Amino acid sequence: MKQETKPKKKRSVNRELIEWGAILGVVGVLYFSGLHVPVIGNLQRVLLWTGLMSPDTEQKNDNFRKANYNIPLITLDGNDFELEEFKGKTIFLNFWATWCPPCIAEMPNIQALYESVENDTIQFVMVSLDEDHQKARSYLERKEYTFPVYFLNGRKPGTYDSSVVPTTYVISPSGEIVMERRGMANYNTSGFKEFLRSF
């Protein structure tokens, strides 16, 4: 009886090693091919569809900070840009990168939000943190995103010094940061659209 059990155990261990080897192989292929970012991003997009990850739009007037319009930016075409040009408007300011799965996950709903609220009083400023600007341009072109994208042309001011990517801010026309969200969220909701239009 003992002799029959040992081969079964051995087969079970071998099978487990093969399964783990296959899993690690798939993870390795995804990682080294760079496909892990879109795969993880797509999985995280499913979380956004649940509606559980929404931005907090509760306005707490005593917690508002002054926005800093002095962010060194350049456009996709390489021209200098000053955030101050949008002073007096509501600004949706998002820091993102192509290497960031949560950023990739929230991009489709940001594009949908942009298309549904685009007007002269609400400005989108999507700031890519990619060092390789061409990689970001290629990604945007491939995905056909049309929201305005900029690159940092220096250091972020301390006002926006979040180590979390993505981080999103809403700046009111009066120059106050009325919302800060660290991490991904679904912004394409009726509540958030109403929040953007309320200023």
Overview of this protein structure:
This protein has helices at residues 2-33, 36-49, 101-117, 133-143, 190-197, and strands spanning 65-66, 73-75, 80-81, 90-96, 122-128, 149-152, 167-171, 176-182. By secondary structure, it is of the alpha+beta class. An eight-stranded mixed β-sheet has the order 1-8-7-4-5-6-2-3, with helices on one face. α3 links the parallel β4 and β5 (122-128). The radius of gyration is 22 Å and the shape is globular.
> What global shape is seen?
globular
- Low-pLDDT parts are none
Number of strands: 8
- The structural class is alpha+beta
Cα separation of the termini: 79 Å
Placed side by side, the strands forming the largest sheet appear as 1-8-7-4-5-6-2-3
Radius of gyration computed on alpha carbons: 22 Å
Order of helices and strands: HHEEEEHEHEEEH
Largest beta sheet, briefly? 8 strands, mixed
The count of helical stretches stands at 5
Q: What is the share of helical residues?
A: 40-55%
Provide the residue-averaged pLDDT: 83
Beta-strand level of the residues, as a percent range?
15-25%
